[in-house]
Structure to design on (1298 residues):
């Protein structure tokens, strides 16, 4: 009985396993798999907040950006300290979580009092404001950002450094996605899941039912933000070994996350991976088949999906399998 | 139901697997791979690069007769995808090019950021990675083994301009620097600042403006108050137009104005009309440069490639549009030629050998000189300064490349409004 | 002893006064019917009690402790449960989950896990007779089913005081009698005070309320044992708009 | 010296602010009525800019004349998008409506890109300029400002003097109430969306009168962000609020530059941007109904 709870993870982890294996075995598929797992991971992370609370954080990418800076700063400043060794990566991750976590606490404490559109706009403000602060106050290299391939190479040697950026970074992303999935499940199954569903559906009623909505919103927000930070630290810092403000505070990434979550089915466990795969693959194939026109094709598709299946692929699938043997695998 | 799930998983497998097979290049060719920026924020420059590369590939195959390896002429093939100007896409496309399409060299996408994003993957596969769109000097301080630059480093953009003004008007001492707040433009600004100090100029104004700015009025009024003799600035395309336009609106008159990137494009004059008269811009290449086989012989350099008129013709054919190539096209094209020469030099397509050959390579083409230092940074290519004179782009510096005299000082906006053009008599 | 005490509560919206210097005392285990025409301020009163609104004047006490400025969720923890005039189910969740929310965050919050909560939910669902619907999505229920579900959800909170807002509106007389009977049972078993607010289903009031409070333009018109309250001419006037004898 | 500069910047800011305000009224109207934030706002401005460009360069129609034309184009566009997309999304969770409007934006950008390419364009409509000692103003800018004011006034009259306008207002107040009072809410939604888009497209023309260069399919982004800040300043749901919000925003953006310029080692321009978003947050937290908002 206890274990049945965790069955829904099986299809998710199967998906990630398949990604990993394809990447390892098929030639030239690794980076594609990396891209897909990146999309799945951000979807999984964002879903924890967006999907479960229904609050749209348009500035979500700011957390990824801060994570990126966390890792970048650690590597760029600590690379000469021999005895730290791989420790600088660990410190990087810690910094990433700290920075994105702290920002989320700050934003959450103030902005989460706002509803709907007001919240969305406020978060855009946070993202843009932060970027201009970095550029205007010349924080962390200002608009020139940080390039640290050199430091990475000097710290670990060419081979290891390259392996870090072209292999381990991607593995980490998969790993983070897996953890995020686990957390999502615990949330869905746990008390907090009930609270979040309630407040997503009707915040007033939820309060009267005895739910401390602010508390649960903040928890979801911080969790989601910290995962975002980790993803930034790996997929953007470790993998690309440089960071320029305009590239990481790029709102279109938030939009991609939203598309993924919505495509798969907001608030579901399986949604993000399904959405991520569909989004990533179709995008990739469009770039390969019709270079330059993918957005033109993509936009109407998105609109169509929103209008036709607002509950997303998994959402529909869920209804289909209710009462069948598959039910316990799908949430 | 379970069945359906499995099916879809296999379907996905198949889909990806198919990707593994399709587009595999034939071995009897030399293939250039390129994650081009055809959409997204760099679409403009991306299109130019695409045309330039296609033009020179065509020239190599049809005029030059293919690449000479082991006494055999091998055709050149160009394989490109659209990277949407996005970093995630760049890495996966580069790997695809290397492993699936089995390309022999990868041309970097536009901008320093995207170039850096792809570098680790290229390095991993020991693949030659040629940079025609990332001007940052910092790329070459990272100790990458396989990156070679064709575009000139950012710090040199305004050096020539300063030399020129230093020479033609020793009295003009007050210089104002106003660049975009971006990695690249700051690089240019740093170079300009250092050189200006060296030449004894007085920097009376030094500010940046953020990317995507829609109104420069405050900065420009500030600048106006500093009463500079001439202004160096710019960053990208739209801000350059804005810069010039709002100088006119605020009636800021200086002896010379030089803007990076924007000023050299035909669109600049189309957008501004004769407000652009006398405005200058540093450029890696301009139509009309005097680089020719003769010039090459004079400097004792090897010459290869189309003449600039041939290039322009090929470029227009390649894009199927009647637009002039700008330096983004020229440098990308020249990079093709550099690669071809290096391959023939090394008599092999092995990246390491070719990289070594590129290290020694020194040649001239319609694009001008080409030579890199041991880090792979471009040092052999000197930039030119162009000026809008009567709606035409005239190269006014350096003297050896000049196609006309400098018009100095630039007419005031009041004069321009009366239709005055900056054509020297 | 007194469970809830309202002291001269006044709630205004801009110009108009919804609740006007309202006093009320509710003893443990009491069942009260609050009667009044639409717009007489009943729902506002409920919102003041459950903490959705804070009154401009007056104070609210629960078990002797002042709760005038306590946020709604804290009041729920203390033992205030309610249903809504227009039912507000958590649409995407199943009936079972809906009711479980009540159990999880009601007076038992923190002392009960998800599994127990679900078991509890099943009990109350059975009580209101929705067992065969318990795995349906709440959004898909009929209005009456929704109301029943809300009652179950509120009961699952194990409240000391249950506020029901038009819980019986639109119900078939049979259902009303069933619900009334049910409430009586629960009241006996769990010693909860129940305040049912109704517009004009006298059947419910008579059948169940020991005491009737009549509201009129935000003021308390009558507060008396059911039998005499219903005879009170003032009530009759407010209620039927004209004296009985004419009818 | 510095005071002259400040005065100059503020004058410029006021003029610019008027246009910004006008460019935000559409956003506010749509939000006020449909409770939907049009994230694709900038794309519609871009359409207006291209309309002005094309009408001027191809047909020699001056921007002033182009304004009503753009308005009509916009209204048509608005109706199309409403009945194709928005109709189904009224009252849907933010998630979907935000994404939908964003997708609309992308669609427009890509279509325009297909037609006009990615070249940065511009036109040159020179009607001279006036020199007010502290700064210089081209007449085109002044016309743009006056045009904005005129449109704001017209909208005000439409709102308060016509039946349709009153209906729209009643829906903004309380759509349920309006429904009860027999207002055809569905039609009001369609109408307001169309007019909102119309205003936005028209504002694109005004913006090119202000800055007739850098016209490009992707030019909308910065304007969307500005519009958000301005709309919030004005209370998000009120078109005139937005207009005055614009004035204030223009003054702040340009005025603060002069002050930030006094800070050593900082980049005043980036900081003005930073400031505007700080203001956004502060207002959202202290008075979400906006500086001039009621309640």
């Amino acid at each position: 009985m206890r274990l049945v709870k965790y069955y829904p993870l099986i299809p998710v982890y199967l998906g990630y396993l398949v990604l990993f294996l394809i990447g390892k075995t098929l030639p030239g598929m690794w980076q594609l798999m990396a891209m897909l797992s990146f999309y799945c991971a951000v979807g999984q992370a964002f879903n924890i907040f967006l999907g479960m609370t229904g609050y749209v954080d348009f500035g979500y990418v700011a957390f990824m950006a801060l994570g990126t800076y966390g890792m970048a700063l650690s590597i760029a400043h600590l690379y000469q300290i021999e005895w730290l060794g791989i420790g600088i990566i660990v410190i990087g991750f810690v910094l990433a979580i700290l920075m994105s976590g702290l920002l989320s606490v700050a934003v959450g404490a103030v902005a989460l009092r706002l509803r709907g559109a007001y919240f969305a706009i406020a978060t855009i403000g946070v993202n843009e404001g932060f970027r201009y602060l970095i550029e205007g106050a010349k924080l962390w290299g200002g608009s020139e950002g940080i390039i640290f391939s050199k430091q990475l190479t000097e710290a670990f040697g060419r081979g290891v450094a390259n392996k870090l950026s072209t292999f381990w970074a991607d593995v980490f992303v998969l790993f983070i996605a897996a953890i995020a999935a686990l957390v999502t499940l615990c949330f869905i199954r746990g008390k907090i899941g009930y609270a979040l569903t309630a407040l997503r559906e009707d915040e007033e009623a939820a309060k009267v039912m005895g739910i401390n909505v602010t508390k649960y919103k903040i928890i979801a927000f911080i969790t989601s933000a910290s995962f975002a930070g980790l993803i930034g630290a790996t997929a953007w810092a470790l993998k690309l070994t440089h960071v320029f403000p305009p590239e990481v505070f790029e709102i279109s990434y938030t939009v991609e996350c939203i598309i993924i979550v919505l495509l798969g089915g907001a608030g579901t466990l399986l949604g993000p991976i399904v959405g991520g795969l569909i989004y990533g693959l179709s995008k990739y194939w469009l770039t390969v088949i019709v270079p330059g026109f993918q957005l033109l094709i993509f936009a109407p598709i998105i609109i169509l999906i929103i209008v036709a299946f607002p509950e997303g692929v998994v959402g529909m699938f869920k209804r289909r399998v209710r009462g069948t043997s598959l039910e316990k695998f799908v949430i | 139901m379970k069945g359906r799930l499995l099916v879809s998983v296999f379907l996905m497998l198949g889909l990806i697997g198919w990707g593994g097979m399709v587009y595999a290049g034939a071995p009897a060719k030399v293939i250039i791979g390129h994650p081009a920026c055809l959409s997204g924020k760099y679409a403009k420059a991306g299109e130019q690069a695409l045309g330039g590369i296609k033009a020179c590939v065509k020239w190599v195959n049809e005029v030059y007769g293919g690449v000479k390896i082991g006494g055999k002429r091998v055709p050149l093939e160009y394989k490109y995808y659209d990277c949407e100007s996005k970093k995630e896409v760049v890495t996966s496309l580069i790997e695809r090019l290397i492993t699936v399409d089995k390309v022999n060299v990868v041309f970097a996408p536009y901008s320093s950021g995207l170039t850096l994003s792809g570098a680790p993957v290229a390095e991993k596969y020991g693949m030659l990675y040629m940079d025609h769109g990332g001007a940052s000097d910092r790329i070459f301080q990272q100790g990458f083994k396989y990156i070679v630059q064709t575009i000139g480093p950012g710090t040199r953009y305004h050096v020539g301009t300063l030399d020129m003004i230093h020479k033609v008007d020793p009295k003009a001492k007050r210089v104002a620097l106003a660049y975009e707040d971006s990695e690249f433009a700051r690089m240019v600004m740093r170079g300009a600042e250092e050189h200006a100090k060296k030449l004894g100029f007085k920097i009376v104004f030094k500010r940046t403006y953020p990317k995507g700015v829609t109104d420069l009025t405050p900065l420009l009024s500030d600048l106006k108050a500093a009463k500079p003799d001439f202004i160096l600035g710019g960053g990208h395309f739209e801000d350059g137009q804005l810069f010039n336009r709002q100088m006119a609106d605020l009636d800021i008159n200086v002896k010379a104005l030089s803007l990076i990137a924007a000023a050299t494009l035909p669109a600049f004059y189309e957008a501004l009309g004769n407000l652009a008269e006398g405005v200058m811009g540093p450029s890696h290449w301009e139509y009309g440069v005097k680089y020719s086989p003769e010039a090459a012989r004079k400097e004792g350099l090897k010459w290869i490639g189309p003449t600039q008129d041939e290039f322009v013709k090929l470029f227009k054919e390649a894009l199927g549009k009647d637009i002039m190539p700008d330096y983004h096209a020229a440098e990308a094209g020249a990079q093709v030629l550099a690669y071809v020469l290096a391959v023939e030099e090394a008599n092999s397509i092995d990246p390491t050998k070719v990289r070594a050959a590129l290290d020694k390579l020194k040649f001239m083409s319609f694009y001008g000189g080409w030579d890199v230092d041991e880090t792979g940074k471009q040092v052999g290519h000197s930039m030119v300064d162009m000026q809008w004179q009567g709606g035409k782009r005239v190269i006014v510096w350096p003297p050896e490349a000049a196609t006309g005299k400098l018009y100095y000082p630039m007419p005031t906006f009041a004069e321009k409004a009366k239709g005055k053009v900056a054509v020297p008599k | 002893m007194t469970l809830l005490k309202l002291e001269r509560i006044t709630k205004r919206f801009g110009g108009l006064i919804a609740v006007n210097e309202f006093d009320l005392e509710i003893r443990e285990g009491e069942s009260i019917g609050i009667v009044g025409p639409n717009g007489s301020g009943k729902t506002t009163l409920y919102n003041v009690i459950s903490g959705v609104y804070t009154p401009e004047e007056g104070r609210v006490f629960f078990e002797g402790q002042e709760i005038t400025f306590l946020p709604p969720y804290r009041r729920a923890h203390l033992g205030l449960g309610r249903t809504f005039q227009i039912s507000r189910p958590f649409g995407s969740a199943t009936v079972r989950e809906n009711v479980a929310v009540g159990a999880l965050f009601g007076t038992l919050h923190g002392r009960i896990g998800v599994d127990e909560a679900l078991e509890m939910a099943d009990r109350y669902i059975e009580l209101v007779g929705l067992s065969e619907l318990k795995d349906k999505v709440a959004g898909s229920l009929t209005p009456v089913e929704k109301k029943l579900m809300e009652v179950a959800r509120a009961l699952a909170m194990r409240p000391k005081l249950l506020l029901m807002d038009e819980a019986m509106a639109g119900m078939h007389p049979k259902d009303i009698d069933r619900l009334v009977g049910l409430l009586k049972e629960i009241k006996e078993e769990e010693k909860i005070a129940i305040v049912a607010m109704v517009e004009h289903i006298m059947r419910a009031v008579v059948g169940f309320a020991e005491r009737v409070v009549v509201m009129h333009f935000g003021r308390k018109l009558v507060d008396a044992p059911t039998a005499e309250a219903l005879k009170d001419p003032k009530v009759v006037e407010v209620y039927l708009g004209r004296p009985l004898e004419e009818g | 010296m510095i005071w002259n500069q400040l005065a100059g910047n503020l004058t410029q800011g006021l003029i610019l602010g008027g246009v910004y305000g006008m460019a935000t009224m559409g956003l506010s109207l749509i939000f006020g009525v449909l409770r939907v934030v049009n994230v694709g706002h900038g794309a519609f401005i871009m359409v207006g800019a291209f309309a002005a460009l094309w009408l001027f360069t191809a047909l020699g129609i001056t921007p002033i004349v182009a304004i009503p034309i753009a308005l009509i184009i916009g209204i048509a566009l608005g109706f199309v998008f409403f009945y194709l997309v928005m109709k189904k999304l009224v009252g849907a969770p933010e998630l979907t409506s935000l994404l939908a409007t964003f997708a609309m934006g992308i669609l427009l950008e890509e279509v325009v890109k297909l037609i006009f390419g990615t070249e940065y364009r511009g036109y040159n409509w020179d009607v001279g300029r006036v020199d007010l000692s502290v700064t210089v103003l081209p007449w085109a800018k002044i016309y743009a400002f006056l045009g904005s004011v005129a449109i704001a006034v017209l909208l005000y009259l439409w709102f308060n003097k016509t039946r349709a306008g009153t209906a729209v207002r009643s829906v903004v107040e309380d759509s349920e109430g309006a429904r009860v009072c027999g207002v055809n809410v569905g039609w009001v939604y369609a109408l307001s969306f169309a007019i909102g888009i119309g205003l936005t497209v028209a504002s694109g023309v005004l913006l090119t009168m202000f800055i007739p260069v850098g016209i490009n399919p992707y030019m909308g982004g910065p304007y969307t962000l500005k519009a958000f800040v301005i709309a919030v300043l004005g209370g998000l749901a009120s078109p005139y609020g937005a207009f005055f919000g614009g004035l204030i925003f223009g003054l702040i953006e340009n005025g603060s530059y002069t002050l930030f310029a006094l800070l050593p080692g900082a980049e005043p321009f980036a900081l003005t941007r930073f400031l505007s978003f700080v203001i956004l947050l502060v207002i959202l937290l202290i008075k979400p109904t906006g500086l001039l908002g009621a309640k």
